[in-house]
Amino acid sequence: MQIISRNRHAIMIMLYLARHPGRAASTTEIGAELGISVSYLEQLFTVLRRDGLVRSVRGPGGGYLLVKPADEITGGGAVCAFPQRRRRQA
C-alpha cells in the first residue's frame, strides 16, 4: 500500500502530539521539528480537527492537542482522514 504524503505527514503530526501529552503544541513548533511549512500544517490540522482527532487551544500557549490519549488512537484514523484520490483516466 502506498502512503501518500498527506497521510504520512498526518501520522507524523499525531506522533509528535502523542510524545507531548497534555501540552498544546503550536504549528510553528511542529513545523520546525518536522520540517513542514506552517501553512501546510494548518491545512492538515483543519482536516484532523474536523475528524475529531485533534483540538485547538487559542491564546498564548495555544496550539493543538490530541483529543484522546495516544493509546486509544490508531494510525488508521489519521490515514482515513485523508482518503486517496482516484486518478483521472484519459
Automatic annotation (TrEMBL):
SUPFAM superfamilies noted in UniProt: Winged helix' DNA-binding domain
One Pfam family linked to the record: Rrf2
Transcription regulation listed as a keyword: yes
MF terms (GO), sorted A to Z: 2 iron, 2 sulfur cluster binding; DNA binding; DNA-binding transcription factor activity
GO CC term (a single one): cytosol
Keyword list, A-Z: 2Fe-2S, DNA-binding, Iron, Iron-sulfur, Metal-binding, Repressor, Transcription, Transcription regulation
InterPro entries (UniProt xref): TR_Rrf2-type_CS (IPR030489), Tscrpt_reg_Rrf2 (IPR000944), WH-like_DNA-bd_sf (IPR036388), WH_DNA-bd_sf (IPR036390)
Record-linked NCBIfam families: rrf2_super
Protein name listed in UniProt: HTH-type transcriptional regulator iscR
